Structure formats: C-alpha cells, structure tokens
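(Structure overview)
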Amino acid sequence: MSGTGALVYVVDDDASAREGVARLIRSAGLMTKTFASGEEFLAAPRPKIPSCLVLDVNLPGATGLDIQQELGKSGAQLPIVFLTGHGDIPMAVRAVRAGAMNFLTKPFDEEDLLNAIRQCISYQLEDELPSPENIGNMIGESAGLQRVLRAIQVVAPTDSTVLIQGETGTGKELVAHAVHDLSRRAKRSFVQVNCASIPATLLESELFGHEKGAFTGAIAQKIGRFELAHEGTLFLDEIGEIPLELQPKLLRALQEHELERLGGNRTIHADVRIVAATNRNLAQMADEGKFRSDLYYRLNVFPVTVPPLRDRREDIPLLIRFFTQKYARKLDRAIEEIPSATFEALVQYDWPGNIRELQNVIERSVILSNGPELQVAIPEINVRAAAVGMGDTGSNISEAEERARILEALKEAKGLVGGPSGAAARLGLKRTTLQSRMRKYNIARLYQ
C-alpha cells in the first residue's frame, strides 16, 4: 500500500517497543513517524495527516485517552489502534467505545497489528477527497491505472473531447467525473446521458430538447441535456449505442456548439465539454459502417483506455479492503479479518465484470458473513482458491516449485513482502510465514 502514501504515527514511551512497531510498519511498505510521549505528539507540527495512529494507552503524562479526547476536540478524524497491557483493558474498552478503531493487548501478534493498521487505512481511503494520489477516488497502484490517472491530469484542464474506452465495469464513469472535477468547469454542471438506456425515439429529445407540440405528447417545452450542460461537462455514456440517424446532429453540436430543439427553428449556442465512454470498438464499427467515421474522429481527440481488472491484479487487495470496510460500515457488520486464502482466490479470479463485479461480490459476502471473518460464497472463486493458494500446508507442490512461486510473487510485488500488495498477500500466506520460507530457500538475503 506504499503507493497510497499511507503514513502511520506511533506513540509509545517504551523505546524498544516503539522502534519495533516502527520497523514492522516499514516492512509492510508504509511510512511511519514515532513519538516518545503524548505531549511530544500533541505539540508536533503535522504537515501531513496520518492514515492511522498506533497509541499506547498507559502513557505517562497525557494518556492515550487524553490524546483521543484532544483529537476529538480539534475535529481530527484520525483512526486509532490502541496498544495495552492486560491491566489496562478496561481503559482500552472505554477508548473503543469513544471511537477508537481497535485495541490489541501486549504482547501482540505482528500480523494482527498490521491488519488493524490496514483497516484504519481502508477507512481513511473511503473518506479521502480527490488528490494527485487519489484522483476521482480511483484506488490502485498498478502501472495501468497510473497511466490513466496521468492522462486525466494532462487532459482535464483543457476543453478537449475525451473518449474513454474499456470493458463494462472498469470505472469509466469515475474517469469522466475526474476529468470534470479537475477542469475549469468543475463548479458547473456535470450532466450524464446513458445512450443505451433511452429508446432511440426519445434520445434526440433527451439530448437536444423539444418545443411544445413537436410531436404527439409534447405538451410542454423540454430543455435538452446539451443546454443543461452549458458551460459544464456532458458525459455521453455508451456512445456506441447512439442511432446512426441521430449522429449527424450530434456531430454538428460537437463541432459548432450549436443545436436546435426538436420541432424548433431557433439556433441555440451550447458551450459544452464532451466526455464520451464506450465498451465497444468504435474504430471497427466505423469501418463496418455501423458508426459514422467523422463522428468517431471528432470524439477520439484524446482517448483514455481503462484496463480491465485482470490486467491490474496488484490493485485487487486494495479494492477488497476498501469495499469490505465500506460495506461493513454501511451494513453494521464487524468484519475484522480477510483470510489469506480468500485474498489469493480473489486476486487470481479473472473478474469478467471487473470492479463492478468485485464490488458486488464483496457486498454480498459482507451480508452473508455472520462472524468477524469475511466469507466469500462464490463457488468458482473458492474452487480457484484451492487450486492456486499456497496457504494450505497440504499442498503437493515441490520445494523447487514453491521457491519459484515465491520468487515470482516477489518480482510482481517489486520486492515488497508485507502489505495488501505484497508477495505474502499474493501467495495467500502470512507475512511471517513467507519470511520463514524465504529464509528456508535462501531468498531472504536477496530482499534485505
């Protein structure tokens, strides 16, 4: 999760414990800053808001509860994980009831602490506003997604037409919103039309409006979507479904920024920035005469292709955690753990419905999970888990095959062992288990 810029603060008066937690956090690819006392933490300038605070309950001077109360008074929405000795559990329980995310008793399991920290980060991700690292609330670290984000940053400040291409469910609508939000038109209207959901006989009226009496049933004047989007952005979703007979009028509106309402003869000027999206191959459709080539060229000024989820698998763990926490909060479910085997199964699945399918699967799984562990009740995914996961001690792969898998996972994770994008998550193993196997196969020295 290092690509998200996640920062974790650690406050503990025990130097060895403090530095041990900091090393663990860094090993998971996260940034960290430590403080030796509550007073030091409260007095320190914080130019960057952290994603999580790991806080010892029983601090000398300002206790963990004192710090929690001070943060609450300042309005800071900072997720807290409390660390406590057995004698301080009642105090930690009070802290959780007051809004802390979690508490762990010392000595704690390292993986439990990392999971609690990642849970905090997932909650923060849900509430973040768009930023250069989180444009349009699109979550991911993959090269494919980063190319899309860079393209958005380049084209958004212009008024150029954008054509977003990609499979169903890849997030084309999020890209369209991001283009608008980062443009000079951000304070004006974002008007959306799904060209596939409106009957062809009504689409012209929806886009361009009509005058009273223009056709049977036109009992009043109607303002079209082009006019409604004046000085803003018009998002034409599923543009490949627009009827051929309507395409010349759309082309004129794009080129001249002019239109007439259906049944009218007055020319109306509409200053509109066009963003279109399609899951179809418009170039091929133009070659086959199913889409006007001049309209295609007018739309294809700045193409942006959104990759399918199967081509950005390293983003799947981030998305799983994000959607799990989102729906756990929405549905009031206490989901505290996502098993490694579940992670591996979801990462290996090809997701023909892309992010939309993943989102729906996670929502359904949260609904069906009765305990603290996420249960994915999708047979084709569970079968895949049994086939590819390394978490099973009964797996019959050879040591050479296992070593090769570990090396491949480390290569894909760019050497990162822990974290939701790390090699351990890809292999369905605990971080500590993977580190043990890396030592066994003399791999650890390559990644120190």
About this structure: Confidence is low (pLDDT under 50) at residues 125-133, 383-396.
